[in-house]
Write a structure and sequence with these properties.
The protein is of the alpha+beta class and 472 residues long. The chain has 16 helices and 23 strands. Helix 3 links the parallel strand 2 and strand 3. It is globular, with a radius of gyration of 22 Å.
Length: 472
């Protein structure tokens, strides 16, 4: 698949002069939370006005205070606000915006949203409609990777339970049942043996239908001791593409990333070379434009790499890549969407030092990480030259119950992994949050655990040790 320039999702383009001119200086930010703050701040540095679309529950967020203008999209529920394509597009067009940044989550990977933007002469900050469509279908993405000889975990489509039994028997248990159009762990079930397959198949398909409107699921081999690694890629409309190194996201719980870092120091050099080359091969075949993340598993015992999927958007954990490369990814993403060529080449990208990101959430470890919304009565982040905080929280803010539990991302940077781990440990120790329960106690235990210090964790590590970390 090689979409042409004509298949781009909007006919609009602008030059650098437009950024300081009069007719291309207003962007609609269609998201909330810390990423809305990140986008509003990036636009401010580029001289772009911002209009922030918020729900009725988000009138008092930090992004709402910083944006040039705020428009209430609808009620607190996402379906009534952030996920309503007609509402978001109308709000953007009626406020004179010519560019829409979707952030991550919500509508960021929806081809229908990108198409609606194009129909209303709005530049969508993201890949083309064709690229979103191709990558949103995980079975289609698997087929693309296979056609390019990218290493792939065993698995494939199974339209009936009987076909699933046959495929799982061929692969060997355990296997994963995964949603073809899913993400975030929804529609995903681990199956240890044949007796569990029928119920897991039904539940996964039902979850996928409820969450994504399509119940198609498929079967993949489950690699128990794997590191989750991903490559940041970036492309423009002038045929330029590059990678910005890899991240490791092995510390996960219920398929949700908890701690990320860059680079992945466990990778042998030949595997790292294969990883980067495989990611670029996919991006090149798609003629990819914008930011994207190509995700893999690395089997530490067999030293094997396996393609997982491509996330065609800005990623939550992008700050660790920014920390080790010095590249402002959101700035580059915006400029590329506006038609600018990349401001750097592959030779300009160097990885220096090590960065770790910990996701701070309003979840109580003592109750199985149940959400803990409410008023923030104390918010005292650590202040240090070797840490960064991306957050929308302030004292007095009422954390709403309607969305995900992310309060912010704490990023530490050091000359090597050991110093980054030490910096994160100090920063988490100084962080004070009051009024709601947070996952700070769990994060502190993770960072100071010998397995993490020795970089011995894999994707199932936290699930096996969380009770020990929480209750001692």
């Amino acid at each position: 698949m090689s979409p042409t320039a004509n298949s781009w999702n909007s006919g609009r383009s602008c030059s650098p002069s437009d950024l300081t001119g009069n007719d291309m200086t207003r962007m609609f930010v269609a998201n909330r939370g810390e990423i809305a703050v990140r986008i509003v701040d990036a636009c401010g540095r580029l001289g772009i006005e911002t209009v922030l679309g918020v729900s009725a529950a988000d009138r008092d967020t930090l992004a709402a205070h910083r944006a040039d203008r705020v428009v209430v999209l609808g009620g607190p529920k996402s379906a009534d606000s952030y996920l309503s394509i007609p509402t978001v597009v109308h709000a953007a067009a009626s406020t004179g915006c010519t560019v829409v940044h979707p952030g991550y989550g919500f509508l960021s990977e929806q081809p229908a949203f990108a198409a609606a933007c194009a129909e209303n002469d709005l530049v969508f900050v993201g890949p083309s409609i064709e690229q979103l469509t191709a990558l949103g279908d995980k079975l289609r993405a698997r087929a693309l990777a296979e056609s390019l000889d990218v290493p792939l975990v065993q698995g494939g489509r199974a339209d009936t339970l009987e076909e699933a039994h046959t495929l799982a028997a061929d692969i060997g248990f355990p296997v994963l049942i995964k949603a073809a159009y899913g993400g975030g762990g929804r529609g995903m079930k681990l199956v240890e043996d044949a007796a569990e397959l029928a119920s897991a198949w039904q539940v996964a398909s039902s979850e996928a239908m409820a969450a994504f409107g399509d119940g198609t699921v498929f079967v993949e081999s489950y690699i128990r001791d794997a590191k989750h690694v991903e490559v940041q890629v970036l492309g423009d409309r002038h045929g330029n593409r590059l990678h910005l190194g890899e991240r490791e996201c092995s510390v996960q719980y219920r398929y949700q990333k908890v701690v990320e870092e860059a680079p992945c120091v466990a990778l042998p050099s030949d595997i790292r070379t294969l990883l980067h080359a495989s990611a670029l091969r996919i991006a090149t075949e798609l003629n990819y434009v914008g930011l994207g993340t190509v995700e893999f598993l690395y089997d530490t015992e067999r030293r094997q790499l396996s393609f997982l999927e491509v996330n065609p958007r800005l990623q939550v954990e992008h700050p660790v890549t920014e920390a080790v490369t010095g590249v402002d990814l959101v700035r580059e993403q915006i400029l590329v969407a506006l038609g600018e060529p990349l401001s750097l080449t592959q030779d300009d990208v160097t990885v220096q030092g090590h960065a770790i990101e910990a996701r701070i959430t309003a979840q109580d470890p003592a109750t199985g990480l149940m959400p803990s919304p409410g008023r923030i009565t104390r918010w005292r982040p650590p202040v240090s030259g070797d840490v960064r905080l991306d957050s929308h929280i302030y004292e007095g803010y009422v954390f709403p119950p309607f969305y995900d539990a992310l309060m912010g991302k704490l990023i530490s940077f050091g000359a090597d992994r050991g110093s980054a781990v030490a910096g994160m440990s100090r920063a988490l120790g100084r962080f004070q949050i009051g009024g709601v329960r947070s996952n700070l106690p769990l994060l502190r235990e993770i960072i100071r655990h010998p397995d993490f210090a020795e970089n011995a964790v894999t994707t199932h590590w936290l699930a096996t040790i969380v009770e020990e970390l929480v209750h001692g």
